[in-house]
Amino acid sequence: MLAPYRRLCLHRILVAGPLGLPEDERAVLLCANHTSWWDGFLLREVHRRQGAGRPLYTVMLASQRRRFPWFRWMGALGLEPGRPASLRRVFRFLYQERRRRPYWLAFFPQGRIRPSFARPLDFRPGVRLMVRAIHPGWVIPTAIHLEPLRHPAPTAFVVMGAPIDTARDPSPEALEAATTLLLDRLQEWLSRVGEHAAEKWEEFLAEHTAQYQIRT
User: Fold this and answer.
1) What percent of the chain has pLDDT over 90?
2) Distance, CA of 58 to CA of 151 (rounded, Å)
3) What is the model's pTM?
């Protein structure tokens, strides 16, 4: 529905990862920083490329879901900040859905839009409920950054790290640290290559894969 408009607002979407995601029947949580209105659509593009036909749900502000009704048709789940009952309702739906079938879930633990260079990222504790809702599953730390480069519309960069088993019950602090590391690496690389980032993207992919191989 929004593809033509997105093409006007975003020049290109460049994706790195996920690294080493097992091909199993587990659910997947994309745990990402929140830097623009387009972030949900960027993760939807990741899901389109990698999701293997599984449904995608995205947790978003209930006010935005009411304002744009078509978000409901795209699997958006409304959350009202400061209302524990709202968080429990989303958790209950995701937990019950997980018993029925595996799915992908997009979640932004910051709970608000912030520049991708802001530190700390300030992940909220609610992400732990999302981790437990999809268990057994995989959590993929995901970094999102938009850069204008040489075009009127920005290029979107989406970098995914190594999957984390929900059995480890990763803390908000651990997920924030993993996402921060991805952002720092991406932004350091962008500072080196500058306006040629799109043309040199294969170079970043090679570096990103090499980092994963070193860690494993």
Assistant:
1) 67
2) 29
3) 0.90
Direct distance between the N- and C-terminal alpha carbons of the chain, in angstroms, rounded to an integer: 40
Q: Under 8 Å CB-to-CB from 102, ≥6 apart: which residues? A: 25, 26, 27, 28, 54, 137
Structurally, how many domains does the chain consist of?
A: 1
The residue segments making up the domain with residue 62 are 3-215
Of all helices (H) and strands (E), which one includes residue 28? strand 27-32
pLDDT (tens digit per residue) in 148-191: 999 889 999 999 999 999 999 999 999 999 999 999 999 999 99
Q: Give dist(CA 17, CA 191) in Å, integer.
A: 21
Question: Number of helices and strands (H, E) in the chain?
Answer: 8, 8
Task: Return the SS3 of 214.
Answer: helix
The predicted-structure confidence for 57-96, as pLDDT tens digits, reads as follows 998 776 676 676 666 667 788 777 777 788 888 889 999 9
Q: CA–CA separation, 200 vs 136, rounded Å?
A: 37
What's the CATH number where 45 sits? Answer: 3.40.1130
Contacts of 109 (CB under 8 A, 6+ apart): 31, 121, 123, 124, 126, 127, 130, 172, 175, 176
One DSSP character per residue, 126-170 reads: THHHHHHHH-SEEEEEEEEEEE-TTSSSPEEEEEE---EEGGG--
